[in-house]
Amino acid sequence: MSEDSSCKTIKNLGKKLRKYLKLPFLLVSLLVFTFPHLTASQAIGNKNYSIGPVSNETIRPYNSGQPLPEAPDKQPKKTMKIMVTAYSSEVAQTDDTPFITAFGTRVRDGIVATNFLPKGTIVRFPDVYGDKEFVVEDRMNKRYYYHMDIWMAEKGSAVTFGAKVLNMEIL
Q1: Residue 3: helix, strand or coil by DSSP?
Q2: N or C: which end of the chain has fewer CB within 10 A?
Q3: Please, what is the Cα angle at 110 between 136 and 120, to 5 degrees?
Q4: Cα–Cα distances in Å, from 140 out to 3, 22, 26, 94, 161?
Q5: Which domain covers residue 47, as residue numbers?
Q6: CATH number, domain at 147?
């Protein structure tokens, strides 16, 4: 057999191997990457393996059944009376980005705007909202300093709220 023909035979063998092994290789790769929790070594060594949800008996609680400690009630650092109004997300009441606060977050329930407290300050209005906490994440026009605006989703709710002097707790 000549050297030239043996090279051709090896090349033909390589082509045939690539042709016939391409599909099985792709299938095995797909299975390994789709089900990484089940590998051949696990399957051979452990005959009790399962695919799917784990039974409740094998799940252990993290804290061994001990009750978690209760968070103490937050005591206010300061209480004061303040004029409170409400606003909604419309360009007439805000700037050209009505759903973005002055600090770049999206408006949501529990957001207040004020100029005299730092960003992230948590406040409560116990007369109206009980223990509900509000976070300072927006600013008001410069002419309003000791004043607070509560964000509301509906303009009608904001109009109904009106302007009130409320007790405010700073936490």
Answers
A1: helix
A2: N
A3: 25
A4: 88, 65, 60, 9, 18
A5: 3-58
A6: 2.40.40.10
Torsion of CA 140, 145, 151, 156, to 10 degrees: -90
Instruction: Report angle CA 121, 124, 130 to the nearest 5 degrees.
Output: 155
Contact, 157 vs 89, CB < 8 A? no
Of the chain, the end-to-end C-alpha distance in Å amounts to: 92
DSSP letter for 28, please.
H
pLDDT digits (tens, 9 = 90+) for 89-108: 887 767 777 888 888 888 89
Question: Does the residue 69 lie in any domain?
Answer: no
Is residue 97 a contact partner of residue 141, using CB atoms and an 8 Å limit? no
Between 125 and 46, the more confident residue is: 125
Phi-psi region of 64 (alpha: psi -120 to 50; beta: other; left: phi over 0): left
- Quick: pLDDT tens for 152-170: 988 899 899 999 999 999 9
Whole-structure pTM value: 0.57
**Nearest CA to 148 among 125, 171, 120?**
125
Q: Residue 68 domain-assigned?
A: no
Lowest pLDDT segment from 2-6, 7-11, 32-36, 59-63: 59-63
The residue written with tokens 């799940």 in the block is 59
